[in-house]
Sequence to fold (108 residues):
Amino acid sequence: MAGLAFTKEGKGTDRLGLFRALKILTKENPGLRVSIVKLTAEELVEKNIPALITVGVPRIPATPGEREMVQKYQWEAGVIHDVVFLGIDDKDSSRVRIGEPQFGLEKW
Fold:
């Protein structure tokens, strides 16, 4: 995947690289469709289908939620990265399952 997406050590993978890799990997399966869509968190949860999502906190956290992410969860302000939304958690519908490249499976 990293090779197909032109991932660079120390720089990561940009969105077009991810899109390229996913298109190549899914071309043999007409049941899969790769597209770039902008959704709210609520819309994503309502669809409840796997998706690659971009997350992060702006350089200057402006909202209480952004400040909480920095303080409580140690998110680094200004760092944006991609994770995999895997759907609503089976045991706790107030949480979603996230595949996080650095930490593995998490519940948010």
User: Anything to note?
Assistant: The CA atoms of residues 28 and 90 lie 31 Å apart. The mean pLDDT is 89. The chain has three helices and four strands.
